Amino acid sequence: MYVAVKGGEAAIENAHSLLADRRRGDRAVPALRLDQIVEQLALGVDRIMAEGSLYDRELAGLALKQSRGDMIEAIFLVRAYRTTLPRFGYTRPLDTAAMAIDRRVSATYKDLPGGQLLGPTFDYTHRLLDPALAGDELAKAPAQREADPAPMPRVSDLLGDEGLIEADGAVPAGKPVADITREPLEFPLERDARLQALARGDEGFLLALAYSTQRGYARTHPVVGEIRIGEAELELDVPELDFPVPLGTIRVTECQMVNQFKGSAKVPPQFTRGYGLVFGQSERKAMAMALCDRALRASEFGEDIVAPAQDEEFVISHADNVQATGFVEHLKLPHYVDFQAELDLVRRMRTEFESGLGEDERREAAE
Amino acid sequence: MHGNRTGAKPESEMRRQMMAVLAHAPSSRLAGLWRDAGFDVAAEPVRGPETGLVTVRGRIGGGGAAFNVGEATVTRATVRLASGEVGHSYALGRDQDKARIAATIDALWQKPELRPRLEDLILSPLRLERDVNAARRAAEVAATKVDFFTMVRGED
Known about the structure:
A: alpha+beta, four-stranded antiparallel beta sheet, 6 strands, B: alpha+beta, extended
């Protein structure tokens, strides 16, 4: 027998207006404007865009405000919003070699063409809380210096010229580009599908897995070939125009991880690579993505799969924080009937246990 | 990056560059310049403005096979002038006014006699502001460039 139970409508409505009230907080404090969030909490906004898998700063800022700063809730809101929009197409692949650079560092070469540009980084700060930021102190205008107009080749291309590093990744020829938002995941995945899943994967989860590879669970001996952050141009092919239409620029973070050698009877030893590309400014995520990408290529290189970070189905199936939160949080929804059935079951087991207890003890004594 | 694309007709390359200027323009700035330029034009909407998604692609390793990174909002519009020219616009974001104005400018641009005025009153200021901004950002980033120097230690 199935019995539908209704109720709680008034409670839900009141809970939502209570949420709205608590979200607004003390009315004596001015409400946050979206431009304040977008400008001053920019990296939080970037994370929502990356894991929400939707590049739109203002929407991400709105989501952050609506979620009271809960990142995963904000990511969920953005994911839900994107399903309401029509799709115009796939852009041409962005050219990260040509991006307008905000930051570019390499741990493999000190003197590389274009140089090491620290950009707006937390690195080398002392991680001391700055009481001045509690107020509205005017920030000093940043220093300027004549920019070098020379191009900044990707570090992987420098090593590639000597043949000491594997080429940029290929997938089997003629295969259409995988799109995990359109087709269900089928393991094993090609690297393109894996990278798409990692690009929207949870930063914390990927960070932990990346860390595990450094601690010996699938060691890959990595070093950062290059991290670059900057604005890349987007172009879209459309039927009404005979040229790719420019859409503007998006900020992305790219990480080229260089890992230790592989070779075979046919291929001479060379460095292997992991790749990370993330919306916004997020080098922690891009680095974690690159480390996971490399670890997940274990079978491609004939490495033993011994650690969680190498297990594609494990990593990719659990990297999405919207899916994860949905399944974990559904446990708080009413399970009254299931629980009633389980109560009955445990009572019956208890009765059987208690009535059988005497017999078992007698048998043990006899033995 | 652009400029020397092979195979592009000069006319469509010029149009592409003009559309790039419009796509990059901040909405309020474009609206202000458009209003001040005072073009008396009736553009009939053909499509949109409508907001949708594009899937952004990257390349494995930076230059390898394509993969999908995520999506981005894009707004597009198509308009037709009474004289028949059809203008299109596409730009990141959700600004429908910007899309409508940019499509109208694209339609007007197809009348060669209007190009100098469009260039002077709208395109050139936008291009200049974008260049100034880009140069300032590049100079600020350049100031964070590391100059390595070697400390001479010991005696030889």
